[in-house]
Amino acid sequence: MKTQKVIISIYAIAILSGFILTGCSTEQMSDTPALKDVFEDYHLIGTAMNVNQVDGNDENSVGLIVKHFNSVTPENMMKWEKIHPEPGEYNFEPVDSFVSFGQKSNMFIVGHTLVWHSQTPGWVFENENGEPTCRDTLLSRMKNHIFTVAGRYKDNIGGWDVVNETFYDDGSFRQSPWYEIIGEDYIEKAFEWAYEAAPGVELYYNDYNMWHAGKRDAVVKLVKDFQQKGIRIDGIGLQGHWGLDYPPMDELEESMRAYSELGVKIMITELDMDVLPIPEGVEGAEISQKFEMKKELNPFPNGLPDSMKFVQADRYAEYFNLFNKFRDNLSRVTFWGIQDGHSWRNYWPVRGRAAYPLLFDRNFQPKPAFDAVIKTVTGK
Fold first, then answer.
1. C-alpha to C-alpha distance for 164 and 168, rounded to whole angstroms
2. Could you give the CA distance from residue 311 to residue 6 in angstroms, rounded to a whole number?
3. Residues with catalytic annotation?
4. Collapsed DSSP state (helix, strand, coil) of residue 204
5. For the segment 25-39, what is each residue's pLDDT rounded down to a tens digit?
6. How are the residues of the chain apportioned to helix, strand and coil, as percentages rounded to the nearest 5?
7. pLDDT tens string 321-356
């Protein structure tokens, strides 16, 4: 991986070069081909949706979603804290609207996510005294949640991210309350109950930094163990929260090949490619990492220079050339958002930065990265 000095030099060149290169104008890109049509013979092309889009309050985004995507994933509305905030209390209305939107648009609908250490209310892991609850109680709460949520949408959702982010990069188990209270078998229980609740739905394991050798080996072992035990698992989601210089393409390819050989589907989930400098030690999507705003970490507060737009475009082309190479095993590529202004990258790992990680800019116009992605299929 490049050193941070090399990374910073990219931004220095971009700032010095200013706007020497010219991006595609709105007029040039107004009659853009639909992503889902271009990749029809390759993979589904998905995006994450937020509540404003589901409610129809963001018409520009909805227009792009309907035109370009044939799969949708809820960004936050299905996470435990949103859909099941209190014991016995469920908030299904936003999710019902999301599912209805996907159905009306003839899209493949992904549920995200049933079991995760983050964005889960504290009460899930506590007893009446606010202390860690016991294994049996936590298992009961997990089972009830899965049967209630996955069961409600068993005829509407095509696939579920059943368990999210179980392993550290070195392949060891994350010391989450799920692991500390239940043990390693909480993952098995989640998949078993998801299958019982929604037997016709695909079941996935989803994680970030899936190109790290340690995490790759742990996930490969998990899938093989499930297969030997007869536990249903249909796919692996590789979260694509990546940057200009990571992951190394050879390591990503090696991991995609290893996952492909397991006989399950692979998919790129949560794809965004940031162009901002990253604080030292940040890589992937560990949301507990938070850093103070500094000028050098927010180099483009008023807009992305054209030079950097083309650097990003070249990197996106690298990604998609690799994805297309695995077209027989890669079932879906899902972007984590529609346009730059809505991306979570604007508040992680540094809140308040101006981020530019997606294919559409804040004016809902396609960036050079959009054209670069199209060209990986069309060649023009």
1. 12
2. 14
3. 165, 270
4. strand
5. 332 445 799 999 999
6. 40, 15, 40
7. 999 999 999 999 999 999 999 998 888 677 889 999
Tokens 């742990």 identify what position? 218
Beta-carbon-side half-sphere exposure of residue 241 (alpha carbons within 13 Å): 20
Nearest to 272 by CA among 329, 299, 331, 312: 312
d(CA 251, CA 215): 12
Instruction: For tokens 């705003």, name the residue.
Output: 293
Convert 292-318 to b/e letters by CB count within 10 Å (16 or more is b).
eeeeeeebbeeebbbbbbbbbbebbbe
| 50 phi, psi to nearest 5 deg | -105, 175
Give Cα 301 to chain centroid, integer Å: 25
Place of tokens 């690298």: 318
Return the SS3 of 35.
Answer: helix
Closest listed residue to residue 220, CA positions, set 209, 205, 241 = 205
For 164-185, letters b (16+ CB in 10 Å) and e give: bbbbbbebebeebbbbebbeee
Residue count (the chain): 380
pTM, entire model:
0.90
